[in-house]
Predict the 3D structure of the following.
Amino acid sequence: MATFVLVHGAWHGGWCWREVANSLRGRGHLVHAPTLTGLAERQHLIDSVDGPDTHVEDIVNLVLWEDLRGIVLVGHSYGGLVITGTASRIAERIERLVYLDAFVPEKSGQNLSPHTNPERAAEIAAARRPDGHVNPSGFDRWISDPERKAWLRTMTTAHPAPCMEKGVTLTGREHEVPKKDYILCTAYEKSLFRKFHEALKQASDWRTFELPCLHDAMLEMPDELVEILDPDGRA
């Protein structure tokens, strides 16, 4: 049995992992899919978020209070910052890091602006609410099925403003995690995440994978994603 902790991206919540989590549990694994502070059912706490480090604290505390070890820690999109920061704090608890179409921060405290483009930056600026928090946008890049896209609009919530402006704190201990994977979703040709995948393909200590879907692979191709996370029923 393996222990999975699944970390969602911006605007999402733990709900987005439901199909993947149920499949992994059906294979006999322990799975946690928490919602980060300020999102989804915890949206009432949005003003308490001080940046990605708050979300790192969410995951670190889950791991410590549940006494989890040998973890497969999975981060989608913005969740890449969170899992890297978590590994930087408690590397000894983590067996494998999996980045799903996710940011891979390299410098402590660096925000997301170097990893975006003018088009996406303008889109995020247009989605800012009067209180500074950012409403969801980009649904056409996230999921293809019209009905599920409509459902996704009802499920996503604003992302805390400080998470767009601040970087995650890193200590360097994230490099101690023995196994690291990167999964690229290939259906969107202008994806911001292609550069991470291309760079990590050349790294000897990383494995890379591709899924022919849009950004929300856990909703678009949950079965195929589970096969990468748990090939042949093994983590």
In short: The chain has one domain: 3-233. DSSP finds ten helices and six strands in the chain.
